[in-house]
Amino acid sequence: MRQHHFPKNAKATVSKLSRMLANGCLAVAMVTAAAAARAEPAWPDEKPITWVVGFSAGGSVDVITRAVAQQVSATLKQNVVVENKAGAAGAIALASVARAKPDGYTLITVPGPILREDDGLEIGEKLVGVATLAEGAVVMVGAANGPADFKQLRAAIEKTPNAFTYASSGVGTGQHIAGAMFNLALQAQMVHVPYKGGSQALANVMGGQVTLGFLGVSTVLPQVLDGKLIAYAVTSPNRVASLPDVPTFEEAGIAGFNLTQWYVAAMPAGTPEAVIQKFRRAVDDALRTPQILTLLKASGLDAPGKEAQDPTAFARASIEQSRMIAKKANITLQ
Fold first, then answer.
1. In the chain, what percentage of residues exceed pLDDT 90?
2. Which of 34, 77, 154, 322 has the fewest C-beta atoms under 10 angstroms from its C-beta?
3. 118-122, 126-130, 179-183, 254-258: the lowest-pLDDT one
4. Residue-wise DSSP of 180-238
5. Cα dist. 211→56, 246, 317, 326 in Å?
6. Per the domain annotation, does 30 fall within a domain?
7. pLDDT surpasses 80 at 2
8. Given 252, 269, 288, which residue is the final one in a domain?
9. Distance CA 215, CA 109 (A)
10. How many other CB atoms sit within 10 Å of the CB of residue 203?
11. Range of the domain at 87
12. pLDDT at 7
């Protein structure tokens, strides 16, 4: 059998060829990566960012979004356009943003907790939380000629549990859920009267058409300070700075009563994590500015606490808590 004889330096030659091939592959990979980087410009580029609000201009969601957007625009050196897309209690805007391309150029301010029959539009499903903008309490108020304080109100409800009604800004809202929590705690049967917004609910509480209102601080604050409404308790774990004499429900004797309303900025699911983190840092910077802190205080809101640093987990926990209460209270969602 013929034997094949290889040169003495064959192994060295093969090794050299292997190194050349490896270096060639590395060079190709580097060129490919560079080309990809050129094909996908760093976010954000010259394209404007659209920040959607699912409610009319002038409301609290709109005002806070515009103020934060202005600061974020300056930080990112990028045009941020706030677009109002009102209708169906914000559901039209939510669906629109959920369908948008997840590239960081479309987001929405989601007020919550708001429960809907279609839970696919909630944060954690088709939307991912980017940053928590603010938190705030719900205030239980009544007309100035009603019971003088929480103790008297509770006694009146327990004596005639079917004689009271309560207003909120809509079915499934945090205000509705707060009223349901109070009903459950007192084993009362107060009838819920939903409105399409806080202003009309406020007018009917002041006029006596509805006994009580569970409403946002900014909605009721002027009337409470003027003595036209009585504020009985707030749903937050701590007292509200603008209503320092109003107790929390816990302080008033309702153990475990804790619910806050919130505003969370959200983008379509699938948005790159690097984009989300960059936008979150810009929002965090905005929330530390004197302008935003002053606005939040005037609105009866607080900058988000530590528990809200993961906005998706924070929103999901709040929504799940609200769904449990809604189930116990036999609330039919819309």
1. 70
2. 77
3. 118-122
4. HHHHHHHT--PEEEE-SSHHHHHHHHHTTSSSEEEEEHHHHHHHHHTTSEEEEEESSSS
5. 28, 19, 31, 21
6. no
7. no
8. 252
9. 19
10. 15
11. 49-136+261-324
12. 47
Per the CB < 8 A criterion, the answer to whether 93 and 82 are in contact is no
Under DSSP, is residue 150 helix (H, G, I), strand (E, B) or coil?
A: helix
Q: Is the pLDDT of residue 48 over 70?
A: yes
- 299 Cβ partners below 8 Å, 6+ apart? 60, 63, 64, 134, 136, 217, 218
Distance CA 326, CA 26 (A): 59
- Joined tokens for residue 76: 């990112």
How many Cβ atoms are within 10 Å of 89's Cβ, its own excluded?
A: 21
In-domain check, residue 31: no
Give the orientation angle of helix 150-159 with respect to helix 174-186, to 10 degrees. Answer: 70
- Give the CATH number, domain containing residue 244: 3.40.190.10
Burial tier of 273 (Cβ tally within 10 Å: 0-12, 13-18, 19+):
exposed
What lies within 8 Å, CB to CB, of 319 at 6+ separation is 112, 113, 115, 122, 123, 124
Residue at 33 is within a domain: no
Residue 229 shares a structural domain with residue 314: no
